[in-house]
Amino acid sequence: MYYQLPNGKTVYLTVEEYLELSDLDIQYLVSIDYGESVLNPFYGSCVDKQETTKVYDFDFVASTDEDALNIPSDEQPFDDIIDLSEDLDL
């Protein structure tokens, strides 16, 4: 997470580091002029990233459904829902 120091500089801290941060630590970071001056309010957010790739795992089978895990490899998983052998007269 990004934390803004009293002098306006921004530093990156983990949650554990933030929880252990004391007033003396903040004073030390300000005294050595540590951090970056960030003018963009969306710095480091997903708004800056131009990634549009989505990954779908169609081979995933939930491990809690025992019936789904015991399907033979030659049988389709949705054959009982969609019966393609029937002729439908519309």
What are the salient characteristics of this protein?
single chain; 90 residues; alpha+beta; 3-stranded antiparallel sheet
Report on this model:
This protein has 90 residues and is an alpha+beta fold. It has one domain (2-69). The protein is 20% helix and 10% strand. The N and C termini lie far apart (60 Å). The mean pLDDT is 75.
Q: Write down how many β-strands occur, each being a DSSP E stretch of 2 or more residues.
A: 3
Our count of helices gives 3
Unreliable stretches (pLDDT < 50, length at least 5) are none
**What Rg do the Cα atoms give?**
27 Å
β-sheet strand percentage: 5-15%
Mean pLDDT: 75
Question: How many domains make up the 3D coordinates?
Answer: 1
Q: What structural class do the secondary elements suggest?
A: alpha+beta
Following the backbone from N to C, one meets helices and strands in this order, namely EEHHEH
Instruction: Give the strand line-up of the largest sheet.
Output: 1-2-3
- What multimeric state do the chains show? single chain
**Main pleated sheet:** 3 strands, antiparallel
Secondary structure elements and their pairing?
Blueprint: E1 2-4, E2 9-12, H1 15-19, H2 23-31, E3 36-37, H3 66-69
Antiparallel strand pairs: 1-2, 2-3
